[in-house]
């Protein structure tokens, strides 16, 4: 129950902040970079070790690559929304239906491995929470601050999109309960590929003209540091055996 609550609150909180502070693009960018540092650290210190120490790990690399390719396909629907690219497109080029489908699939798949997490406060869960916050911030800014639309005309579809996104990971976790626990490493490998793609794109594409951005570097280091502290605290409890 705690896991479901955290997943939903991460989306609701991000959307609320995006609705009221969405015009602050620098804040959105810094949140994305912070989450990317956190996410790539969780990916390398938690997800991949768990994947590659599991049975049949020699064939799991293809599922990591599959996760990268899957995320690239989903971005055809979301237009790179997950790493803040909606500012580089006309808002009308992003169809709410396509955005909803892409984000739902993305969050749903991330939720599946949570079904076999024995510790509710696992670093993997917090990776999703930190990942949800900036995406939801951008989602709230996009849905509730669109130009040329009255609040009443966009309110219900926007709330539906937010609700579906908030429930996607819990629904994935629910479905994961019906899978054989031995499949956990395969789902983790796919999600690891998704995490790796998104975090690397955010980190490496956020530099303009490849100049040194000390604020960006600081945000990455902060995200990495937070994830490393969580890794140390949960190092033994998060180990699984199959």
Automatic annotation (TrEMBL):
Keywords: Membrane, Transmembrane, Transmembrane helix
Residue intervals passing through the bilayer: 6-22, 31-48, 60-81, 93-112, 124-144, 156-179, 185-204, 216-234
Membrane topology, from the record: Multi-pass membrane protein
UniProt protein name: Zinc permease
Primary residence: membrane
Cell location: Membrane
Ranges in coiled-coil conformation: none
PANTHER family linked: PROTEIN ZNTC-RELATED, ZINC/IRON TRANSPORTER
InterPro entries attached to this UniProt entry: ZIP
């Amino acid at each position: 129950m705690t896991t479901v609550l955290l997943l939903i609150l991460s989306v609701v909180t991000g959307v609320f902040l995006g609705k009221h502070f969405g015009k602050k693009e620098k804040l959105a960018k810094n949140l994305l970079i912070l989450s990317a540092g956190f996410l790539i650290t969780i990916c390398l210190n938690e997800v991949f070790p768990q994947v590659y120490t599991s049975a049949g790990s020699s064939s799991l690399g293809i599922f990591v690559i599959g996760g990268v390719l899957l995320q690239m396909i989903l971005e055809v629907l979301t237009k790179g929304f997950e790493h803040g690219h909606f500012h580089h497109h006309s808002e009308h080029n992003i169809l709410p239906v396509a955005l909803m489908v892409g984000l739902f699939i993305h969050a749903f798949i991330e939720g599946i491995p949570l079904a076999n997490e024995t510790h509710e406060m696992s670093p993997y869960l917090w990776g999703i929470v930190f990942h949800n916050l900036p995406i939801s911030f951008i989602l709230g800014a996009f849905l509730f601050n669109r130009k040329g639309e009255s609040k009443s005309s966009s309110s219900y579809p926007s709330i539906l999109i937010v609700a579906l996104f908030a429930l996607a990971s819990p629904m994935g976790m629910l479905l994961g309960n019906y899978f054989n626990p031995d499949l956990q490493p395969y789902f983790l490998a796919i999600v690891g590929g998704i995490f790796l793609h998104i975090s690397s794109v955010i980190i490496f594409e956020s530099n303009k003209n490849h100049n040194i951005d000390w604020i960006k570097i600081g945000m990455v280091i902060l995200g990495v540091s937070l994830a490393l502290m969580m890794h140390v605290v949960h190092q033994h409890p998060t180990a699984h055996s199959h």
